[in-house]
Amino acid sequence: MLKKIFLFLIFLFLIFIALNGCSKNETATEPVATPTNTPAPGTISGVLSGLPANIAPYTVFVDNDLNKANGTITEVSGTYSSGNGTQPYSVTVTGGTYYVYAFLDLNYNGIPEPLEYFGVYGATYPAYPGAPNVSVNGGIITADITMVSATANCYGTITLPADGAGNTYTIIADLDGDGNTTDDFITMVSSTVSGTSLPYLILIPFPCSFYIYCVVDMDGSGGSPNTGDFVGIYGGFPGTPITITDLSVLNGPYNFSLTVY
Questions:
Q1: What is the pTM of this model?
Q2: Which of 149, 160, 70, 159 is nearest to 116 (CA)?
Q3: Which of 149, 172, 203 is the last residue of a domain?
Q4: Which of 14, 153, 132, 150 is nearest to 62 (CA)?
Q5: Beta strand residue intervals within 151-205, DSSP E
Q6: How far is CA 147 from the centre of its chain?
Q7: Is the predicted pLDDT of residue 83 greater than 90, yes or no?
Q8: Which of 98, 170, 85, 176 is nearest to 133 (CA)?
Q9: What is the CATH number of the domain that holds 116?
């Protein structure tokens, strides 16, 4: 009797396994791969308008942020020479969504300065769009830019430890505050000291955070600071970043003092 019961239980167990196996096979589905939509490379082209009669080099920048410290996606440069107020441009770029902005360098020194011309697609400079607004996914995208003569938007006074009259000073706005101003400075001004203070007016061309350095070359040697030169940074070493978001107003004053190096 026990043997029959045992065999009957085995029989039920095998039926249970078979039924569950069938159920699994009937309801199982193969995973569906999610397609990846990678934007295709394309071309951004347009016209810079509102330019002056001056012959000057221009650059159009394409980037996914407004932080030049980490480089740009791509850029195109040329010389505006027609004098008729307009300059066409065209640049090939990988697929994505970008800011597109431009700079006309009137004095050929590569430094953004007051009275030089700036513009951005999708807004009237000194305003910028709130987010990247040129989407590239193959084809040709038109991005015309109106250029505007910029005004200074950052000011302050730098106090020297002694009279530096007749010596050269340099003021630099730098993006990352690492002391290396050759890689990502925003703007620079250099002139001759005439006393113990330096009132300054500079142009910050895009919304950003930055540091302001100043060096007075007291021995006329040029290059890196030497013993006896006057040096300093806004907020004192290692520096305090300044953040400017409204380029249409005069931000400041950002005053600081120099010390003897």
A1: 0.82
A2: 149
A3: 149
A4: 132
A5: 154-159, 168-174, 185-192, 197-202
A6: 18
A7: yes
A8: 98
A9: 2.60.40
